[in-house]
Amino acid sequence: RDLVRSRGLGDVYKRQTMSEVKHYKTDPADAVSIFQKVAYGFGMFCNNLVPAAMGCMVIVLNLGLKMNPVLIGYIMSLPRIVDAFTDPVMGYVSDNTKSRFGRRKPYIFVGAIGLGVIFALMWRIGSGYSEMFYFWFFLFGSNLLFIMNTVFATPFIAFGYEMTPDYHEKTRVMAWANWLGQIPWILTPWFWWIMANDKFFDTPVIGAKNLALWVGSAVVILGTMPALFCRERYKAASNNELVKPPKLQRVLKHTVEFFKGFVITFKNTAFLKICIATFFLFNGFMMVAGLGMYVLIFFTFGGDQVMGGKYNGLFGTTSALSTVFLVIPFVSMLATKIGKKRAFIVSTLISLFGFVMKWWCFNPEYSSKYVIELPFIGEIQYIILLPAILISFGIGSLFTLMGAMMGDTCDLDELNSCKRREGMFGAIYWWTVKLGMSVAFAFSGHILNATGFDVELGVNQAAETLFMLRLYDIGVPVFTSIIAVIAMVFYKINEQRSREIRTELENRRGKAC
User: Fold this and answer.
1) pLDDT for residue 246 is more than 50
2) For residues 400 and 420, is the Cβ–Cβ distance under 8 A?
3) Which of 308, 333, 301 lies closest to 189 in space, CA to CA?
4) pLDDT the model gives residue 346
5) In whole angstroms, what is the distance from residue 318 CA to residue 496 CA?
6) Dihedral sign (CA 239, 243, 246, 247)
7) What one-character DSSP code corresponds to residue 420?
8) φ, ψ at 371 (rounded to 5°)
9) Spatial CB neighbours of 448, under 8 Å, sequence gap ≥ 6
10) Other beta carbons less than 10 A from residue 248's beta carbon
11) What is the 8-class DSSP label of residue 380?
């Protein structure tokens, strides 16, 4: 057996062939109860609900309030730059906080309430204002929203990494969280269909007001549940100092420690590979997320917004249901058999094939030949929904497997730094994602304009515009998915090495309870 061990911050690993991998049974003491998994999952529901709702409702600014897509792209991107830089600060504060309620819970509780209230309020606006008024109003509101999202999400994500030290139980925790976190992706794709349907609301703008109130209420109620019902395993296990009221010397000390921790985190090569894979896979998807609806409305259904909204809802719901009932169980099982890395690569390649299939399945000359009648829904061109099932393997597996891998890298970091720094790792992980999202959303408006799309033309879009919409919708995520697969080929922490790291940690400081 060829054993290679390196004690650097990121490359501690043992190489083994598939036949040499030894599987370990989860100790009952390491198991997380179903109740706590569900409570944590409700937090993930809220963590996904706000960006999912925002992404589906922002189309109101273009098709409802006639804003330039470039300005909308800036509204979606600029707050995420602020969000990306506040995340590491929040991660450091959470890691270094000690209270009788824990390191994470106080921020999760307060953040969920603030997040829900701000989201509901920022959509309380009517028609008739200038384009620049809408731009500055939503830009200011979005910045407040994402600052509060940092207060909630950064400690919440870190909380999940530390709920169990077991290699496979980490995957199960993330599977439950991702399972419940998929519910927003079932619901939000229908938002435009609801907002644009005059049977429900007089205008899409009025529809947005009402939907925002429901979204905000759900975040306040469900987002506080992890703080109320989950147990912090490492709340007393950190060697970090208590954050006290600021004095100059203390502020300088923590500033130095913050930047030192920031640099050390990026030296973890296993962590960097996770970040790179997530950056390209997720942000490639997000860059063209809105184009699919434009393709459905203006290419597949010739400008019919209600039909386009209906199929966008069906597509999103099919994708989310596939994730919940197919992808997450399949990937969780596959990860226990062949490892998290290989499971991720397999899932991403399936997703890549799904994007390619959209070229034919979204074509009206082809899709109109495959029709079935469904109760309550009516006539459905079901071939349009086939890519949704395949595409769901990419994003559906991403946060289940990456969350579990992040737990392993945090253990590796503790082995070298003697500190539990889930907050910093989670914050920097999402820092890279959000910087990418900022770029993705900024480019999304330019991409839409680059296709030649003109909202004033309505159904009379040029043939070249429709071609470019389809090309960008497929080509961008295919390209970024390939990069993500290449990055994960070089990820090295497997089950055996994770077990070794845990054994060394517990020999050093005992079991965390």
Assistant:
1) no
2) no
3) 308
4) 93
5) 37
6) negative
7) -
8) -130, 135
9) 69, 290, 291, 294
10) 7
11) E
CA dist 319 and 327 (Å) reads 10
Q: Mean pLDDT score of the chain, rounded to an integer?
A: 79
- Provide the token pair at 43: 């937090």
Nearest in space to 300 (alpha carbons), one of 352, 390, 361, 355: 361
Assign 3-class secondary structure to 118-164.
HHHHHCCCCCCCCHHHHHHHHHHHHHHHHHHHHHHHHHHHHHHHCCC
Measured CA to CA, the distance from residue 119 to residue 43 in angstroms comes to: 16
Q: Which contiguous run of DSSP H or E holds residue 378?
A: strand 378-381
The alpha carbon of 155 is separated from its chain's Cα centroid by a whole number of angstroms, namely 15
Is 267:477 a contact under the CB 8 Å cutoff? no
Residues ≥6 apart with Cβ < 8 Å to 62:
69, 72, 455
Residue with tokens 């909308």: 72
Percent of the chain with pLDDT over 70: 84
Q: What Cα–Cα distance (Å) separates residue 55 from each residue in 48, 191, 482?
A: 11, 10, 25
Question: Burial of 23 by CB count in 10 Å (0-12 exposed, 13-18 middle, 19+ buried)?
Answer: exposed
CA 433 – CA 435 distance, rounded (Å): 6
Rounded Cα distance, 236 and 418, in Å: 14
Query: Is 379 in a helix, a strand, or coil?
Result: strand
Of 97-101, 340-344, 372-376, which one has max mean pLDDT?
340-344
Q: How many residues are present in the chain?
A: 513
Burial annotation 28-46 (CB, 10 A radius, 16+ → b, else e)? eebebeeebbbbbbbbbbb
Residue 413 pLDDT greater than 80, yes or no: no
Question: Looking at the DSSP assignment, which residues form a beta bridge with residue 373?
Answer: 379
Distance in angstroms (rounded) separating the CA atoms of residues 344 and 340 = 6
